Structure prediction request, 174 residues.
Amino acid sequence: MKKTLLSVLAFAAISLAACKKNNHDVVVTPPVTYPDMAEANDPAVLFTTAGGVKVYNGGFGSAVAADPNDPNVFYLLTDRGPNVAGTIANSIILGKSDFTPAIGKFRLKDGKLYLEQTINLKNAAGANLNGLPNPVGQGNSGETPYDLNGAVLLQVPMASTRRVWYLPQTAHSG
Prediction:
């Protein structure tokens, strides 16, 4: 009985020692305080209009996701590029018809977002996507796209059966 009791006590002591927490291995992440608003640092100029107005690539933010491994890193989706509603019903004027929607990796530092990486959205064949409305029968928003000169822009279908539906900010979401 003594031998069994000693064996049980020895096993219990070893088990308890193995469960002891080692405070040297604990990493405490300090809480992150986010600003009420953060602006992009030095956004790229897409183009300058004839009247001298600069159009910036500051359209990141249509969607946002926090990096689960770094509280200061965020992934932001652009909208479909600079655009305004046209004067004709269901028309949209695209300031840069070859704009490629992208995901930007941003780091928050001192209340500003710094763009670290840009990931262009592409189709399955590797071609850049654009901000044009989808063709009729393929998720079309009902808009007719025009360029800055008033010419109707051709809506080209994606050349793949694998699709990512990138819903423009003007389409109804439900």
